[in-house]
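Page 42, continued from yesterday. The earlier attempt failed because a stray header line got pasted into the input along with the sequence. Redoing it now with the clean sequence only.
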Amino acid sequence: MIPQPNKIKGDNIMSNKKECFTELDVEKLNIVDKTGKVKMTLFNQENIPPLILGGKDVLPGHRQSDPISGLMFYNGKGEETGGLIYGSEEDEDGNVTAGASLTFDQYNQDQIIQMHYSKENDEQLYGFSIYDQPNENLADMIEKDKQIRESDLNEASKQEELAKLYQDSVPRAFMGKGVKGDVSLKLMDSNGKQRIRMIVDENDIPKIEFLDAEGNVTYTLPPE
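This time it went through. Structure tokens are written below.
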């Protein structure tokens, strides 16, 4: 008996037949489960996927004009949960902007692990970062952000409320090379403040700095 294909969504057909291609050109490719739910997507600059949370686009227009291509991952609910993006631009004067980022998101939240590279003409930064994110659902936070920005509060009060909203979204560690040419390992406290820095600077001089909660260096190795 010849196996019959299973119809899952509209005209989408999945069958047991395998086909082999030497080369395949596509502008967007979705990897789906047997129900048709997208689990991963590959895309070019003209087909950047929207930010899907809670089954809807929570930031219409987000990333749509960015010069990026890449890959996005989706969790069991079909929500974005990280991905790889990369791209570059060079204007008529030769000014270059380039970047790449591989991220993994906390469930129902934003990124907690990131490998990243960015370049702005002769300045570039690259490394590995980790972040803390709150337990609150990111879609709810985006809605609160919108309400604050569209409220009748003055600008100072808006910034104060936004700071409260994102107070638990903070960097906790960075290891990489900075725009000044230094290679460093930086550890932050629960408020995102740097507390330990291990550095080999642009002149190949190594040092370790300990900082207080206000960002003041309290101890240095070797002692200055």
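Notes: The helical segments are 138-149, 155-165.
Reminder to self: strip header lines before submitting.
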